[in-house]
Amino acid sequence: MLNIVLFGPPGAGKGTQSQKLIDTYSLIHLSTGDLLRSEIAAGTELGLRAKTLMDQGILVPDEVVIGMIDTKLKENRNAAGFIFDGFPRTVKQAESLDSLLDQNNTAISGMIALEVNEEELTKRLLLRGQTSGRPDDQNEELVRKRVQEYNTKTAPVAGYYANQGKYHAINGIGEIEEIFTEICEIIDSYATQLNA
Ligand code: B4P
User: Fold this and answer.
1) How many domains does the chain have?
2) Are 3 and 106 in contact (CB under 8 A)?
3) pLDDT tens across 101-126, in order?
4) What's the domain range around 32?
5) Among candidate residues 114, 87, 122, 115, the one with its CA nearest the CA of residue 101
6) CATH code of the domain containing 130
7) Ligand 1 pocket member 59 (CB < 6 A)
8) C-alpha 195 to ligand 1 mean position (Å)
């Protein structure tokens, strides 16, 4: 199986690039942000709890997102692979993902990290906030809080995959199409290794 972690701070382009990747590769796209927003839209108890945290730019508890991913992996046992978008966001989530995949006799092929500086992230998210209706994109203080959450809780996940020799960073600033081409080159190299 081809299992890709698309990594980066909020606004780095994970969701944007995932949409293009699912058109190219036959992989299942799992975005914890999208899954949580679906729960909010459906008005579930999980959604109501998550909304309070997301609206403050704070990460949702590990158990909640790990549970959602576990369910999705079980629903898609015969998939060719997955694109994990916005997950794992803590080292605990990364460890849990490894054991869930191991139970299915598979593993992460690699992590692709999109590198974008805080000024550009803030600009992109506030711009999206003008049309997205997402409460967490609405003001600069909240956007900076999300970047701070990333720096303290999520950035260490890069080291977790680097220790496994699975970390690949690319510049996330530039034309969306050019960034997409670079990501595809890395994914194609994973696929070649798998088939070797
Ligand atoms: P997410 O839904 O994952 O949201 P995100 O990181 O803000 O967005 P994304 O990274 O996908 O946006 P993109 O760059 O594509 O998370 C939202 C919240 O959910 C979190 O804050 C947290 O509370 C919670 N959550 C989610 N997963 C969790 C987990 N695992 N654990 C705990 N909590 C979790 O796009 C941003 C903008 O940039 C777009 O407008 C796009 O058009 C633009 N853009 C993209 N690429 C560009 C480029 N190259 N140039 C210019 N603009 C570009």
Assistant:
1) 1
2) yes
3) 999 999 999 999 999 999 999 999 99
4) 2-189
5) 87
6) 3.40.50.300
7) yes
8) 32
